[in-house]
Amino acid sequence: MIKELIIQHKKEKEKLLSRNYLLREKLDFARHFLDSSLIKVITGPRRAGKSVFSFLLLNKSNFAYLNLDDENLIKASTDDIVKGIFEVYPEHDLIFFDEIQNLENWELFVNKLQRRGYNLVLTGSNAGLLSKELATALTGRYVPIEILPFSFSEFLGSKNVRMEKDQDIIPEMKGKILNHLDCFLKNGGFPEIVMNDLDTRTYLETLFDAILFKDIVKRYRVRFPQKMYDLALYMISNFCSEFSSTKIRNTLEFNSTGTVQSYLGYLEDAYLFFSLNRFSFKIGEQIKSPKKIYIVDNGLILAKSFQFSQNTGRLMENLVFLEILRDGYKPNKDVFYYKTKNNKEVDFIIRDGLTVKNLIQVCYQIEEMAVKKREIRSLIDASEELNCDDLSVITWDYDSIEDSNGRNIKFVPLWKWLLTRKKSETESTKNN
User: Which pTM was predicted?
Assistant: First the structure.
């Protein structure tokens, strides 16, 4: 029985390997570890492209493949699974387990295989389960590789738009890029939507429900699924805004703050959203302050949020946050938001160790003088309080470097910022 299932998975593998895929940005980083004894753990939301990424990574390798989304397979004993692998793949260099978290006590199984010298690649769609169990069972013996939906650069690649480094952008090309950016800003970058021109709202509504009810309600045996659904919609509708568990408890009429916090943890573990702390040099103040909410893909916002109008500025801010994550920075470790002493907000601060190295504002309507003065004032105040001189405002299409109070402020168009940021290929120092 197990052998037949693995044979089916092998046919699935061969079919998937025969297709052409868009190359992903983190492939070079992941290839550094392919021959290492470290377990390669590829995490991210459902349908973000983890399996395809793994096939791109392994396409020149001799590897065994098991898809653990198969309910029949996960009912088998781990000894029978290993036996079945060697029956179907008598000679192999690696084993690829897709959606490993579906296998009960998977971390013990993986730990045993790793100790026996197997080279392993895993994917998983639950950040919390993976991080806690890996930290317990595999301390220091794995490398995490986080895969999010397409970046804007990958999105352009899917449209056959290529830009060379330092290439001068003619007006016609710039117009096309802005048109693509507007589409990406609204519809996001889930690969199947981008590559197959699927209806965004229909696809993402179905995906949202699958994540909510399969990955959360079923897995955690949530007692009040409607409350969970209401909470998820509330968070998506309030993206890029501050929130607190107490406020949510009162607004959505939860019985306790503890339940709210548990449900928020489930949503975050399932990669539906990320929470961002307000920066303070005092850890206690960070914990007590309201957090901000960011969604894993902009398409989910317009597909599921309850809004009367499109807020382009907040959509831009969500996009910038996701790009910061793609650079390898970790929320609440390397990146935060900030409130000055006189309550002016800075969207993002980026730290390097004990030093604040960047302050970033995101603003759509920067050409309005009152708005421009407000954004500059926030950056200047934060710059003085945090001793940071690298100040940026990310705009829709305003490009300039201007002096204010003796400090240079860079105004950078969103498209340029997204396409010219240096992608970290040595991000292991941030990931560990």
Answer: 0.92
